[in-house]
Amino acid sequence: MLDLTYETPKIKTIAGAKHDWELVIGMEVHAQISSNAKLFSGASTTFGAEPNSNVAFVDAAMPGMLPVINEFCVEQAVRTGLGLKAAINLTSAFDRKNYFYPDLPQGYQISQLYHPIVGEGEVLVEMGPGPDLGKKRLVRIERIHMEQDAGKSIHDMDPNMSFVDLNRTGVALMEIVSRPDIRGPEEAAAYITKLRQILRYLGTCDGNMQNGNLRADVNVSICLPGQYEKYQETQDFSHLGTRCEIKNMNSMRFIQQAIEVEARRQIAIVEGGGEVDQETRLYDPDKGETRSMRSKEEAHDYRYFPDPDLLPLEIEQGWVDDIAASLPELPDAKKARFMADFGLTDYDASVLTAEVDTAAYFEAVAAGRDGKATANWVINELFGRLKKDDRDITESPVSPAQLGGIVDLIAKGDISGKIAKDLFEIIYTDGGDPAEVVEARGMKQVTDTGAIEAAVDEIIAANPAQVEKARENPKLAGWFVGQVMKATGGKANPKAVNEIVAGKLGL
Amino acid sequence: MSIDESTAARVAKLARIKVEPERLPALAVEFNTILGFIEQLSEVDVDGVEPMTSVTPQRLKRREDIVTDGSQQEAILTNAPDAREGFFAVPKVVE
Predict the structure, then answer these.
(1) Please, what CATH class does the domain formed by B5-41 belong to?
(2) What is the C-alpha end-to-end distance of chain B, expressed in Å?
(3) Distance between CA atoms of A88 and A317, rounded to whole angstroms?
(4) Which of A343, A504, B38, B47 has the fewest CB atoms within 10 Å, i.e. is most exposed?
(5) Which of A32, A52, A101, A305 to mutate to test the interface with B (most CBs of B within 10 A)?
(6) Which DSSP category does A184 fall into?
(7) What distances in angstroms separate CA A432 from CA A366, A384, A413, A425, A439, one per listed residue?
(8) Partners of A122 in the beta sheet?
(9) DSSP string computed for chain B
(10) Which of A161, A303, A310 is opposite residue B60, by nearest beta carbon?
(11) Is the separation of the CB atoms in A385 and A428 below 8 Å?
(12) DSSP calls for A399-434
């Protein structure tokens, strides 16, 4: 059994007409391996090229062409496996999955059915904002195998024809298969988010869902409360309902919608006395329904067999060890370290470690400074400002050194928090060294009590009526503080002003 | 295992090979001959014998992750019965 040292999210239940039903979800995520060339050919993987320009004769399945494996793709798959704490299989092999489709000219996809390169691993899924914030669930990974992507068919350029572009044909994919350990639509999204984060940390997949570089097939079934626990005890699937597979989704929002819609469809069938057919379905976001891909069903006789063009893939333990030694610090470890070393909250640490670049930026600023104050500046001011301009952290006009300079000026008491925001905007727009800008523009906080006293005296002298009122009701002293701040252009140290005003009014 | 005509028709369909109905009986017989031979092989006891994947000790050949191919749209499309604007044009296939 798993060691559960954290709180798990609430299991999603959907009320049917007769019972409450639980959801059981497993996912097959297809992640495009980040590489220059394809899995078995020397053609480029660049997205958005002229149609059929990134195609080698191997990809077009010209007679007599033979596949030669891209070793870097193998390395990336191994790196991914290690990042998911998975077993690496030193011997794996390629099989042909036979089916016909215009964008798959070979008539088969080279995949790894019987001997995948990566075995069992795990992903610790963490729930985002919402009622389950910060709760975690361990989702087991069953396997990862390498396979070829198919091409792209375009159906809307001509009323009678489909247009086929083979640029994507043969690009390397990792299929990451989870166990049915996901228990609701939000968890499914959180799983993809975490997996994507790990892949991006590892640099093995860019995680670009919009371009289809990360997409998921989602297996959904329903069961009555209690049944899932029986499955977990025995690993016997007969305790669970019949699953349907919703194909090829590349949007977090649609994945969640599709799961919910599909679960409701199954509940209606089962409660109506029917049986769910195990089948492949497509989600139609416009209609908000899933529908059967019957044509695919009929062709679902893949007649797998070992690919005679490819010898088994043997890799050496030493090579795997070298890859393991080169792994970066992964999200879970980085987050724990940020909390321990910088005193950050769980939430702040999650936000700052969501992307490698963000984490690196934060660390550069936080080195030798107050972690919590730095986190506030990075998350609230910098992220907010970048978002406004739709900029990435790598495009930040404010460098870590500059932001650190601002944090230092506040810490020293040279500028107030309010002035610091003005200073940040100046640095963001015009650049410059924060300390020099403060000096040059006279933004320094006035801590010279003589100057503040003079300002207070002036305002008291000019407003005798207010003075009377304030002496009767000390709460009105705030008006004087405001006037002094105004008179000094916001540069007076608010604490000093408060004290001097109180003293002068005899409060 | 024995292949009847309907199975032969199904295999032909999956392979996208057009077989006239009158050819199916002969095709089924051919399949059965092949499978009969395979069944004969299945009689050999291979328990504990590692599958042999090559007659000489060979390591799967690898390539480096360098772009060495492509940029030959015209050549790729040369044999296509129909091509337009750089795409293969095929009869409409919509899911």
Answers:
(1) mainly alpha
(2) 35
(3) 9
(4) B47
(5) A52
(6) S
(7) 20, 20, 20, 11, 12
(8) A140
(9) ----HHHHHHHHHHTT----GGGHHHHHHHHHHHHHHHHHHHTS--TTPPPP--SS-----EE-S---B---HHHHHTT-S-EETTEEEEE----
(10) A310
(11) yes
(12) -HHHHHHHHHHHHHTSS-HHHHHHHHHHHHHH---H
Give whole-number Cα distances, A150 to A38, A99, A172, in Å: 12, 11, 10
Rounded to whole angstroms, the Cα distance separating B68 from A367 reads 44
Q: How far apart are CA B18 and CA A314, in angstroms?
A: 40
For residue A342, the one-letter residue type is F
- Taking CA atoms, what residue in B is nearest to A107? B15
Helix, strand, or coil (residue A113): coil
* A8, two tokens: 């798990």
Cα–Cα distance for residue pair A30/A145, rounded to 1 Å:
10
- Tens digits of per-residue pLDDT, A427-457? 999 999 999 999 888 888 776 777 788 888 8
**Higher pLDDT among residues B21 and A296, named by residue:** B21
pTM of the complete model:
0.88
Q: Residue A98 in contact with residue B11, Cβ under 8 Å?
A: no
Q: Which two tokens stand for residue B95?
A: 């899911």
The residue count for chain B: 95
Q: Where are the domains of chain B?
A: 5-41
User: Across the interface, do B54 and A311 touch by the CB < 8 Å criterion?
Assistant: yes
* Residue A38, pLDDT above cutoff 90: yes
Distance, in Å, from the CA atom of A184 to the CA atom of A12, rounded to the nearest integer, reads 5
Range in B5-14, B31-40, B46-55 with the lowest mean pLDDT: B46-55
Q: Do A160 and B92 touch (CB under 8 A)?
A: yes
